[in-house]
Amino acid sequence: MTSRLNIRNCVIVVLLLALALVPVYAALSGNTFPMSFSAGVIIQAMAAVSLNLIMGFGGMVSFGHAAYLGIGGYVVGILAKEGVGSGLVQWPLALVLSGLFALSVGALSLRTRGIYFIMITLAFTQMLYYVANALDRYGGDDGLTIQRRSEFGLVDLSSRTIFYYLCLALLLVTVYVVWRLVNSRFGLVIQGARSNDRRMNAIGFPTFHYKLVCFVIAGVICGLSGVLLANHTSFISPALMHWTRSGDLIVMTVLGGMGSVFGPVFGAVAFLMLEQILPPLIRPMASLFTIATGIDVSRAPEYWQILLGPLFLLVVLFARGGIDGVLAGMRRG
Amino acid sequence: MLYFIEQCLNGVQLGMLLFLLAAGLTLIFGIMDLVNLAHGSLYMIGAYFAASFTAETGSFVVGIGLALLATLLVGIVLEIIAIRPLYGRDHLDHVLATFGLLIFFNELVRLFWGPEGRTIPLSSEMLTAVQVLPGVYYPLYRLIIILATLTVAALLYFVVMRTRLGMLIRAGASNREVVGALGVNIKLLYTLVFGLGAALAGFAGMIQAPISYVQIGMGENILILAFVVIIIGGIGSIRGAFVAALMVGLIDTIGRAFLPDLVRLFVSYSAGSSAGPALSSMIIYALMAAVLIFRPEGLFPAKK
User: Closest Cα of chain A to B294: distance in Å?
Assistant: First the structure.
């Protein structure tokens, strides 16, 4: 996030330009898939950025961050089903509830640390997951289709393009807010508490309160991401809050790099892009293999995830600092 | 009352199953300080091996024997190739890397066994109900599961408490560095413990396979329950895992059986049917949260 010209900043600019131009491409080609796909990436990047605020900067490894995706999504879905379509009601309510949930979870969880913190955040999200499963009126475990996107009077979110640019703008705002936050006095206290909680307390900072506020902010941002996700997919189900979903968010964040505010955006793009890129990459390799050995592996591209798993392992072992770390390392050459 | 006894037996059966998973998980956690999200994959792989070997040999017992060896082997190879470099790393690194392994194993199974699930058919005698108490009938196979897992638990207790290997394992759980400093081959010990954990998880998958469906991702939900068990019981404690597994098994099963009726007193019939199981699952997580808040080291801490 420095103003210097380096590889990392160039990549950021190119990535943002590419994201901004996706709707143009979609309009020219008539193919809306890239736009819908990118919107998904942007929304999940936002969730990952919020997770990074507590995990990367605050050292609070939440294994239940998907709860806020669920809260945001379910508020939109439930209100829409009950006939309250106005975004002016839906969105603030979703953010308030996300914040309240984060406040209560944080107040209880922040008394623990390390693996216990990981497990207790998981526990609260699991509880919410089962609540959603029990909501018979709202689809139970089958989920609920949302008939209409949130209504905002003049701004028509049912237009894909407007919705897309709204998501992109909100992501940029989020990154900016988080960036300002971690570089503020507040952010320095949080980072200080990550390195040495006891020392920060000793010099007079009530770190518990700082961390709790940080936890709530991250929850609210992720709640917003959930609101957008529900509007994007027009569908909510308990799967939004499944623990593997929280795992995905951790993967995106660590893959992208926890050291920087923008890292998780790289992570989300890479994580979701691999899904699109790996099969076509494997295909020619599989054909060559078939020609060379006579063994038919033409179905191999369907199994792209078999490469994805070991890739995480390699990132953990050899690319600490994730994608962002690799890009920043290039600058030093 | 009879229904209650039957549900208690079901709870014990689920509890013992959880114990098999949790025992390995808690040892791996306690000794190697490794968060292993791929433990549920070994449960799944065990079940698939059992399904294949049973189909090949025509005998479930032989199938289980072969599958046990195969899972042990997978566990040892996995430890040597992928897990070993992770020791001493951050828990977050463990979560990421083993989450990757979980995805890898799901795809590997899809590659070898195809996307559709498997079943292991049981002979009709196995499915008949036997009288366990006057008036209480219980399916023979479920009874066998309880007895088999109890035997394994006793065996595990014996190995951990009464043998030299067990002594090293316990010593490793309370202080790794000192055990290493005393000249014990820590690498080998770690590999053995991981292999043992893998075999236990695989065994759980195998014996559960005939009464549930063998499918991709079957280890994921039960893995989280196993984590709940080891947190409640205290990380590294076999005894804690045993007690907590029974608690969780009984709460889950009895809650599922009786809460719907209780809930229906207040809400409509169909709402009760779905709220009941959700409520009993929530009780389990609430219990874990309470343990973490008031007794973070678990009910039966291994250390000190």
Answer: 10
Which residues in chain A have their CB less than 8 angstroms from residue B286's CB? 123, 127
CB contact under 8 A, B89 and A316: yes
Tens digit of pLDDT for each residue in A277-320?
777 777 777 777 777 777 666 666 666 677 778 888 888 778 77
Place B302 in a pLDDT band, splitting at 50, 70 and 90. Answer: low
Q: Per the CB < 8 Å rule, is A308 touching B274?
A: no
Please check whether residue A1 lies inside any domain of the structure. no
Is A78 inside a domain boundary? Answer: yes
Q: Which two tokens stand for residue B88?
A: 């001493």
Question: Distance between terminal CA atoms of chain B?
Answer: 42
- Does B143 map to a domain? yes
> Which pLDDT belongs to residue B12?
93
Return the CATH number at A143: 1.10.3470
Cα B9 from chain centroid (whole Å): 17
The string of pLDDT tens digits covering residues A19-62 is 999 999 988 988 888 899 999 999 999 999 999 999 999 999 99
* Chain B nearest CA to A76, separation (Å): 22
Given CB atoms, is B25 within the 8 Å cutoff of chain A? no
Pairwise CA distance, residues A293 & A278, whole Å: 22
pLDDT at B40: 93
Give the C-alpha separation, A274 to A282, whole Å: 11
How many other CB atoms sit within 10 Å of the CB of residue A28?
9
Find, in chain A, the residue whose alpha carbon is nearest to that of B100: A309
B93 lies in some domain: yes
Q: Which residues of chain A lie closer than 8 angstroms to B231, CB-CB?
A: 116, 119
Q: What is the pLDDT of residues A114-165, one digit of tens each?
A: 888 998 899 899 999 988 988 888 888 888 999 888 888 777 788 889 999 9
Q: Which residues of A153-177 are buried (b: 16+ CB within 10 A; e: fewer)?
A: eeeebeebeebbbbbbebbbebbeb
Strand duo A144-145 + B136-139: pairing: unpaired
* pLDDT value for A301: 64
Please tell me the pTM assigned to this model.
0.86
Nearest to A305 among B85, B93, B107 (CB): B107
- The total domain count for chain A is 1
Kindly report the nearest CA distance between residue A309 and chain B, in angstroms: 4
Q: What is the DSSP string of A42-76?
A: HHHHHHHHHHHIIIIIT----S-THHHHHHHHHHH
Residue B71 lies in domain: 10-216
Q: Which of residues 245-304 of B touch A (CB under 8 A)?
A: 270-271, 274-275, 277-279, 281-282, 285-286, 288-289, 292-293, 296
Is B221 domain-assigned? Answer: no
Cα distance between residue B281 and residue B137, in whole Å: 27
Which residue range(s) make up the domain with A152? Answer: 7-332
Does residue A2 fall inside a structural domain? no
Total domain count for chain B?
Answer: 1
Block residue for tokens 């396979």: B209
Q: Do B107 and A130 touch (CB under 8 A)?
A: no
Say if CB A238 and CB A125 are below 8 A apart: no
Is B241 domain-assigned? Answer: no
pLDDT tens per residue, range A166-217: 999 999 999 999 999 999 999 999 999 999 999 999 999 999 999 999 999 9
CB contact under 8 A, A136 and B270: yes
